[in-house]
Design goal:
This protein is an all-alpha fold and about 200 residues long. It has 11 helices and 2 strands, in the order ββααααααααααα.
Length: about 200
């Protein structure tokens, strides 16, 4: 099953909500379906935080275990994906702090595609052109809070609300932080000699 196989009304995945409720009631099979549906985006999320493939994989595995144990606290009617990604983010941060390793952000993360509710972005378009590696290096060099808000919104294709929930910040903070982060990204690309269209596009939201 893929994330996009879920039906939705007003952006809320109906099948996902049913699976989450069943998992909350102890249905292991339902939780396994949720794991399969969110495995890839969980990996990309952890990668954005750790920038290390092994650490990201370990973080995701542990996060899925912790999420299952915490299902009793999952709020009925809430969206499962941002709730899960908040757990993934916290676990990845813990592992990054505990590890001395810091590999560069890989192109596998950069190859992520936005989900249906995310607006088309200049970042994703740039990644599909010859400036891909330059943009990835610029993202890698950003502060964590900048890299995550840009990465979650555009590379992972989360909506502003999902980004806010996954990062544990108000939706308004996502807007303001994203604006500042995209400006910094544009300046970094310009300084690195990116094509003007790419550097200018990185500042458009």
């Amino acid at each position: 099953m893929s994330e996009r196989s879920f039906d939705s009304v007003e952006g809320r995945p109906l099948e996902e909500a049913g699976l989450a409720e069943r998992a909350k009631d102890g249905d292991v099979g339902a939780y396994e379906e949720l794991v399969r549906a969110h495995q890839q985006i969980a990996m990309r999320t952890a990668w954005l935080v750790t920038r290390d493939s092994a650490e990201a994989e370990d973080a995701v595995q542990e996060a899925f275990v912790k999420a299952y144990r915490a299902m009793s606290r999952f709020r009925e009617g809430a969206a499962f994906r941002p709730w899960l990604l908040a757990i993934v983010t916290n676990e990845a941060r813990n592992r990054r702090r505990a590890s001395a390793r810091a590999d560069r952000l890989t192109l596998r993360v950069a190859g992520a595609r936005p989900s249906g509710d995310a607006a088309p972005s200049p970042e994703v378009a740039a990644l599909e052109r010859e400036e891909r590696e330059l943009l990835v290096r610029a993202l890698q060099a950003m502060r964590e809070e900048d890299r995550l808000v840009v990465g979650y919104r555009y590379l992972l294709g989360l909506s502003e609300l999902e980004t806010a929930e996954a990062l544990g910040i108000p939706k308004g903070t996502v807007k303001s932080r994203l604006s500042r982060s995209l400006t910094r990204l544009r300046e970094s690309l310009t300084a690195a000699g990116a094509a003007p269209a790419v550097a200018e596009g990185a500042a458009d939201d």
